[in-house]
Design a protein that fits this description.
Carbamate kinase; single chain; two-stranded antiparallel ribbon; alpha/beta; globular; 37% helix
């Protein structure tokens, strides 16, 4: 791998909203194709890519709360939504000639294989993209936590969190124009300043295992390559 990348094996956490384009919910064909095309740029250069994607384009917990739904059932609906998104992404990858595998935390063969670390690592080493679906397989845990957990299990070098903003800010930059963006910040500083990076469980997993988190703006297709090369003008690096 001679692309100037600092990392070889990464876990990318995506929001399900990346698949809906300008639609209020669901899927947009062009958005799905663009997403996969952007990812193919780095996988074709040797990056071993694991993916965790949310289900915000299909189902959100707020909907369950609004209708008085049992939170456990609502969380399982979200997990199933991640499988639908994984299938859409897998199909788009394979249409581009890139082999993609889905591993699920909940047994649902033949749609997806059960999660197995050794197989996942083998797939990655063979150049296949691996999508980890169904979160952790348990309610009350977010896809952020699933991303941190799977990253540690597959020995990823970094967790990449794709967002709509170019890093971590002192406040919500959409509401506060005076919010300060950080190029680099330590885990301790995140806690002291109460910065929003990932949910507390995911963050604790990364901190305890010294696994860096990079929060970056994924709307520009070139940003992923920039982040992998260590540029921080479009991202914030959280580490020890």
């Amino acid at each position: 791998m001679d692309s100037g990348f600092l990392y070889r094996r990464v876990l990318l956490k995506l929001t399900g909203e990346a698949l809906k384009g300008r639609n209020p919910f669901g899927y947009d064909a062009q958005a799905v194709k663009k997403l996969v095309s952007d990812l193919a740029v780095v996988t074709n250069q040797g990056i071993e890519l694991g993916l965790v994607i949310g289900a915000g384009n299909i189902w959100r917990g707020e909907i369950g709360k609004a209708i008085g739904m049992d939170p456990v059932k609502a969380d399982y609906m979200g997990m199933l939504g991640t499988v639908m998104n994984a299938l859409a992404i897998k199909d788009a990858f394979e249409n581009m000639g890139i082999i993609c595998e889905i591993q699920s935390s909940i047994d649902m063969r033949p749609i997806a294989e059960p999660f197995e670390k050794c197989k996942a690592v083998k797939f990655l080493e063979e150049g296949r993209v691996v999508i980890f679906a169904c979160g952790t397989g348990h309610p009350f845990f977010t896809t952020d936590t699933a991303a941190a957990l799977r990253a540690l299990e597959i020995d990823a070098e970094v967790v990449l969190k794709a967002t709509k903003v170019d890093g971590v800010y002192s406040d919500d930059p959409f509401r506060n124009p005076e919010a300060v963006r950080y190029d680099r910040v330590t885990f301790e500083e995140v806690l002291q300043k109460r910065l929003r990076v990932m949910d507390s469980t995911a963050f604790s997993l990364c901190q305890a295992n010294n696994l860096p988190i990079i929060v970056f703006n994924f709307s520009d297709p070139e940003n992923l390559s920039k982040v992998l090369c260590g540029e921080t003008d479009v991202a914030t690096v959280v580490s020890n």
